[in-house]
Sequence to fold (450 residues):
Amino acid sequence: MSDIPPNGLTAVEASEKIREGWLTSVELTEACLKRIEETDPQIGAWAHIDREKALARARQCDDMRTHGRPLGALHGIPVGLKDIIDTRDFPTERGTPVFKDRLPETDARIVERLHEEGAVILGKTVTTELAFLHPAGTRNPHNPEHSPGGSSSGSAAAIAAFHVPLAIGTQTNGSVIRPAAYCGITGFKPTRGVIPRTGILQTSKSLDQVGVFARSIEDAALLTDAISGYDPRDAGSYARARPAMLAGARQEVPVEPSFAWFDLPFADRLSSDAAAGLNEVVQAMGGTVTRLQAPDTFEGLLETQRIIHEYEICQHLETVFADHWEQISTSLQPVVERGREIGRDEYEHALGVMAQLESFAEEFFHDYDAIITPSCTGEAPLASEGTGDPVFCTLWTLAGLPCLNLPLLVGENGLPIGVQLVGACEKDDRLLRTANWLVSELSGDNDKEE
Fold:
């Protein structure tokens, strides 16, 4: 028997034990709730939890298994949801007093999928104000003096603190990859359009993307498969087959992968310890990595993302800003005022530049399996200094590419630093396969097998 407590298991491990009868969903859920009770007063990852509803759902899952009924992919597994995802059973307050006690009438589409796949929704995780700039109260589980990142701060912290094995967040700039990097966990944002956004707060119809947090690549793939699918109510959702994430994560690479490293124009934002660690990773990978000078246009893409994001958030949430201006933080107010000044022509030009970047990426990945790049500028900043710089996520989010944080490095203060892999559009399974190869290669596992 393992000495690992139930809440310390990965989702794949817990799922296998539940199906084989070695663990019940009630035992797993109780272990998660106990861990939350012990540590969340210091971390603040959760906005809402309903202990009794969670345990009732877990009992229902156990009863289904005992009676031999069909089991979903996430049967009996607790999951946390970023508090911008609509849930009928929990308030969805979106990180702002404007929506205090808001109880949606319907679930988001991904919540319906979680129910269909047998998940136990434990509660809602803390987000920044309207999933944007203003920091929330959540702290980094590795050191509570530091930020967990934003805006999916609670989801990342909940995984790192062993509160739940799986959690869901969103990324409009860097809000899955950066918190995952700061918290030392796996974060995965699949290709834009893989996961439907229906019932999730819209801040940018062009840029908003759903992502997942876990403690392994397999777990991230398992959750992504479960919530993926076409939804015609989401204009960004596409009506064709999705990559098989878990199958991809478990595949062996047919040949040694080929990686690209871009010398980016904003590389001076990288801390010295992060730069040194990433350089060691690239050197360890030897001839599999090609170093490239980034195109001159890359630096201007930061402004392209800003224009699209700020213009669209002002369009989508103008009523909120107009009717509740005094409840909007002084962090967000200047951004809204700036976004209101962006003209339609400037916005449409930015959309054209985004389309050019997508075309560039389509051609680029004919020659490479993945781009290896920083997840963040370095270790998590102090909580008093904000949620950190998303600059190393901006381009890839703008392009809608699948992105994965791997918790491979540690900084000079003992805090995690992530390594990001970026893959080709709709080839997420290939990215996950490549990531597993990379982790094995760096750990020496491949050499041992030989």
Q: What stands out?
A: The chain has a mean pLDDT of 96. The longest strand covers residues 403-410.
